[in-house]
């Protein structure tokens, strides 16, 4: 996995894991690295070294997650952390200067590796991102990251990075002091652009390495007066204490106590700063061990894997054009020529303005140039009629949730589109089968349930009917992935999967928020319109609606449509950490989810979990309804539900699938 | 203003050309040129049904580093000097020209149609229409080809085309906010309104806005792009410095040898007569290697010494249909034959115009690289020229980006920019194109070649190439 060659007195060490798409700090990589470094250090003619990846678009994407997952005890995980610490300390104390030449993702362990080196050069490519995303997997940077990062970029930035897991682009990294020098990506020359860029990066890095070893390139930048002052200030004990306190409170507020990692990260940094590096390392590895064994981390890692799985198209892929406001936006910036059709001039003007503003904000934040914005906008045409539809590959309809209007639009559209064109309906609740009934070609009709705001929410729920063709599903899936969505495919039923589960819980969302089930149900209900929900529940299966729902409707408080909705019903009682309510709510969600799998609405548990987390805000710390059953225990859940059943009746009757799992503890949704 | 003319165009260089024609050895030509003469095809690029368009004469003011002797002029002064030079040199009657077209890049707002302002002042008849074109560094190429188009279409018979650039003064504007306030002030009716507008002015609004030195679409400066381009093609600093030194050395030789006969003398009001380019400064490799990178810091390779510098200057050419020229008793210098404009990615291939334009124009003319005797490429940066040469010499690039089976082939250096180039002579953006064409005509005569090729890159990722054929002596 690791090879090196000598360029004059510089050893160029190339990282390349031939068994995977990205480089990770797997045990193989680590041992190879140790071996190579041993050789280099013992070779007296080598005066400096450069680390570079031969993988396009990836330096080191992080630690090997499987390696962490396979740990059986916290001691074992802590040992992993200690090994990493030891290795990087050797690199930090290397007798010859080491330059990390970074192109592509440099995350987690990869970043810890890079900051242990003496000098970092990164390409100013969009692919180059640096960060410590461990917290998102319920972990902490366990190879010296919590100790080195604060020293390198200062406490505030270090906490920001470690507690949010935010990815930092090269320009920002240079400003923060995370990298020392930037290299511009090159265009094509005598070979393809990417290849030449890596080569160029290597040339520059070798030059810098030589410069460092003969003292022409200084390792530390002269600090400005402001920075010096800042450092002095940070050294004062009361100031530091205040920072720790503020950060702790903020982390506590945001995690609501359901995620243990942020608190541990703060603890490690504090220990290191106050009791020295040895103590810091010890705290880091011990806490890493503890976190690696925590159910939260296991759940989050599961979510991560599920998310990856939901971006792989198993239906084949095809190139398609799309049509529909937020929808148009996520399509045009992926290079799809898109028509936005609406019924009146005000609406299309508003739609176009909305898209323009959100792109323009990206320009203001320097994520793209004004030119790129204009080119993206040129992919969009707005109009009131159906001209151009005759050459569309896909039409996504996003009219109001009203069956008659949907039917009318379907008929109008089908009159102009070509035979191969797919008609997708964006609905969060109306039965797709019923919509498709008005179609001359129901095999080309599919539901695509986007979540609002479309440009922010990453889930797309594709709804298929019995008649939808495989080809149609494939196209919708590939469009979704192209739009940057995490996609789940479900069968049509009232409310599909996400909306259906939400409704099972509708009345207690405010409470849910307090007990850690901060489901975005009221938002969804407001979005969809309560009348639609009522419609679903009237025709639906077993979705018990409380009285006040129908009251709400009869009062014409039809969600966002009328400007008022669920949030009116939040009352000020404190439900915090109320285990009664937690169980009461979670059991309903889990039961309904399992019912969806049992009925074949869901294809597999992974999509169920991903849909729950990204669709209606199921807490990732408990990993989705199916993973919850696995970890909580089906039998235990059934016994809890039986108690509620006695009081509240049918809604708490466990479904057959859950009962099966309860009966046979060896049955698990996840192997 | 008196222009100092040393010779009239009709009397020069007859003998060497004749010598070539008969294949005789001549003392004034090198062995190398002799070899070309022997392999040359004698066919002409004239086509039935297509009008022959000829270059009658081309002149330019000396190209000066901006901020030097021309510093107090305005752009139309320079353009006027070039036009007067052309009038004097050709003796063309002041009303015999049908149309005047000028190219310029950074426009002086007061004289936005600089062609008209200059023509009026130069003494041309006020009955001759004039317009100004802009296409970055190939603006005067565009002026010439627009003129050629008018002749080909039968609209005109005689055209004056030219270009001017004046970098000693550029329009520096108030900030947008300040401009908005000032415009609103014009419309304000009451004292109260005026006071409140004046009160809204903040310190930050007073910061001036310089004309963009960056490519608008990518926000990248041209020097930065050139540095990346050189790196993409693996052009070393050494190669760039060597090429820059070659340009200056050859320019110096040409200047000293009196080869730059398109340069007219220009009496600058309040100053001396200027009759020489002042940017030609052959230096040494040691001195050049000391310079720091100008754009990509710290590891870049493009420096002040291997880039073209900001220049003031103007050029002008007289082009006519062949019949008209002959009818008026002129002996044309060259035929202007096929030309192309190309454009490509303004980010990663900003300065690769010559690579794209050369094979395309050769194909149109039915020529190969070997047929070309004289190459005149615009030298924006030494790194850009080297990158273009490497791109033309690369099979991979030819196949991947030019849709060819193999490489274009790089022009041989012994035919390439032998009298210096933009790096040494200077590069007044709008004026360089006419200089290239005139130089090709003069070199064809001097060196006895038949075909010449002009190629240039321009901001916006555009490019131009033109084939020029020597006029039979």
Automatic annotation (TrEMBL), chain A:
Annotated metabolic or biological route of this protein: Lipid metabolism; fatty acid beta-oxidation
Ranges where the 3-hydroxyacyl-CoA dehydrogenase NAD binding domain occurs: 324-493
Reactions listed under catalytic activity: (3S)-hydroxyhexadecanoyl-CoA + NAD(+) = 3-oxohexadecanoyl-CoA + NADH + H(+); (3S)-hydroxydecanoyl-CoA + NAD(+) = 3-oxodecanoyl-CoA + NADH + H(+); (3S)-hydroxyhexadecanoyl-CoA = (2E)-hexadecenoyl-CoA + H2O
InterPro entries (UniProt xref): 3-OHacyl-CoA_DH_NAD-bd (IPR006176), 6-PGluconate_DH-like_C_sf (IPR008927), ClpP/crotonase-like_dom_sf (IPR029045), Enoyl-CoA_hyd/isom_CS (IPR018376), Enoyl-CoA_hydra/iso (IPR001753), FA_oxidation_alpha_subunit (IPR050136), NAD(P)-bd_dom_sf (IPR036291)
Claim: Acetylation is one of the keywords in the record: no
SUPFAM superfamilies: 6-phosphogluconate dehydrogenase C-terminal domain-like (SSF48179), ClpP/crotonase (SSF52096), NAD(P)-binding Rossmann-fold domains (SSF51735)
Annotated Gene Ontology cellular component terms: mitochondrial fatty acid beta-oxidation multienzyme complex
Keywords noted in UniProt: Fatty acid metabolism, Lipid metabolism, Lyase, Multifunctional enzyme, NAD, Oxidoreductase
Enzyme Commission number(s) from the entry: 4.2.1.17
GO molecular function: enoyl-CoA hydratase activity; long-chain (3S)-3-hydroxyacyl-CoA dehydrogenase (NAD+) activity; NAD+ binding
Any GO BP: fatty acid beta-oxidation
Family: In the central section; belongs to the 3-hydroxyacyl-CoA dehydrogenase family. Belongs to the enoyl-CoA hydratase/isomerase family.
Identification of the protein by name: enoyl-CoA hydratase
Gene source species: Labrus bergylta (ballan wrasse)
TrEMBL record, chain B:
Domain Thiolase C-terminal: 330-469
NCBIfam families: AcCoA-C-Actrans
Name the record gives this protein: Trifunctional enzyme subunit beta, mitochondrial
EC number: 2.3.1.155, 2.3.1.16
Gene3D superfamilies membership: 3.40.47.10
GO cellular component, one term: mitochondrial outer membrane
Signal sequence, start to end: none
Residue ranges occupied by any Thiolase N-terminal domain in the UniProt entry: 53-323
Single GO MF annotation: acetyl-CoA C-acyltransferase activity
Pathway in which the depicted protein is active: Lipid metabolism; fatty acid beta-oxidation
One Pfam family this sequence matches: Thiolase_C
Swiss-Prot/TrEMBL GO biological process terms: fatty acid beta-oxidation
Reaction equation(s) it catalyzes: dodecanoyl-CoA + acetyl-CoA = 3-oxotetradecanoyl-CoA + CoA; hexanoyl-CoA + acetyl-CoA = 3-oxooctanoyl-CoA + CoA; octanoyl-CoA + acetyl-CoA = 3-oxodecanoyl-CoA + CoA; an acyl-CoA + acetyl-CoA = a 3-oxoacyl-CoA + CoA
